[in-house]
User: Fold this.
Amino acid sequence: MPHDGHDHTEPPDDLTLRVKALESLLVEKGLVDRDALDVVIDTYEHKVGPRNGAKVVARAWTDPDFLAAIKEDCSAVIDREFGYGGRQGEHIVAVENTPDVHNVVVCTLCSCYPWTVLGLPPIWYKSAPYRSRVVQDPRGVLAEFGTTIADHKEIRVWDSTSEMRYLVIPERPAGTAGWSEEDLARLVSRNSMVGVEHAAAPDEAQT
Assistant:
């Protein structure tokens, strides 16, 4: 991006300003402790975030019985096997990408999201353009993420609600036979579990 030597800082958007104002008011009135709020945010961003979901996907890639079980009752199985339960972890449905089907998730009404396995929802997921356009033109929106879906492949768009949230199990990358679950998990990103990207190739593994 060109830089003209001046520091141009974009002002926060209206929603961000409203959230900050509400937070300040709640803290001022003693209804919310700022330190406690920071702990909650840090927990969902870094400790119970996408790394949890990556472990679930890696297990599904290596254990057909586990994959079948989470496709039947994802929330119960991942709570039992990994302890990933609690708030925003209820009613999760696992949907599997295959050579014939690509799944992508949206919440058209707000930003319902499985926090326990994906962490906090990204800004783009909550944006009005994504929420409307991915339903109308999923192939075009995925292309904007750099994700090309073959013409023969069906794209299924799943609309999350407070009663039903979705976890995409991306296709396992080629060249990973014999990999451990820990190594496979490094190929899984939050975006791939929303369905807007593929899992990383072996030479793109996260460190």
